[in-house]
# Entry
Amino acid sequence: MSLTGADLKERAKMHSSEVGSFVSKARATINEMANLPVPTIAAIDGTALGGGLELALACDIRVAASSAKMGLVETKLAIIPGAGMKS
# Structure
C-alpha cells in the first residue's frame, strides 16, 4: 500500500484563505489518529510520502518493508510538512 499526502501542485492553486482550513483539517485528522485510545500500527509496504508518512508517524508502532520508501517531500520546497502534529 502507498500512502501519500496532499497534492502540492493542487495546494499551490488554492486561494490563501483556503490553505489554513485545509491544513487545520489535516492536522486535526492526524492528531485524532495519534490520540486514539487503542494501539495503532502502520504497516508500510510501498511508498509513504508527505501526509501519508505523517499519518504513519502518528501511529504507536511502524513496521516497514525493506523496500519501503519514505519522505517528507515538502522539505525539498523549504516548507514545513503541512499536517505537522502538535506535541
DSSP finds three helices and four strands in the chain. The helical segments are 8-12, 16-34, 51-57.
